[in-house]
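Final report, Chapter 2: Outcomes

The project's central promise was a pipeline that accepts a single protein chain and returns its three-dimensional structure in a standardized token representation, suitable for archiving and comparison. That pipeline is now operational. To close this chapter, we reproduce one record exactly as it appears in the project archive, with the input sequence first and the structure output second.
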Amino acid sequence: MGELLDTALEVDEYVVDSLGLEDEVLAAVLEASRVAGLPAIAVSAPHGALLEVLVMMSGATRVLEVGTLGGYSAIRMARAAGPTGRVVTLESDATHADVARAAFALAGVADRIELREGQATSTLASMVEQGESPFDLVFIDADKESNPTYVRRALELSRPGTVIFVDNVVRDGAVLDAASDNASVVGTREMFAQLSAEGRLRATAIQTVGAKGYDGFLLGVVVA
């Protein structure tokens, strides 16, 4: 696996360089997160570009993100949504939120992004209760033990055609361990079980290897 991962890292670098997937602003955003001591768990450049492509392919102008971190992925989606688009991003950590707001300003997209602080489970419940308008795309990348709740709320805040993307669902293959007591694995497996009985979402999961190691994501579209 080590040799394969080394090759995958080189391929990621080749893809980023060949397709121009990073720029000075995005690099500065990541550096600001590093300096602030945020965990280095932002999506990779290829995955960030994938989010952009998904926003553009779906024509999304209303995007919901669960888990802001330093703002990197929100910026990429806000860019793709265009000047009339809107990204609502949820973050529970006040330090992360401060770093992200500065990043939005640096990237020139602060007017397109609304950051809501607080526990995402509570924020999402309030959004549903208040009848918030449905979103065109939902990106879930927060604490994995809450994934079943996040996906359920995402469906409640969706419409037919809404794209739902859940990151980090393979976890170095640990998702196979039915006996795991790791909260992230348990939450991810519960999410898969939940979706197996959910008729409103047509989804698949794709394994990935690269800058973020061996992992994967779930991608689906709301059909009813």
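Archive annotation: The mean pLDDT is 97.
This record, like all others produced under the grant, will remain available to the consortium after the project formally closes.
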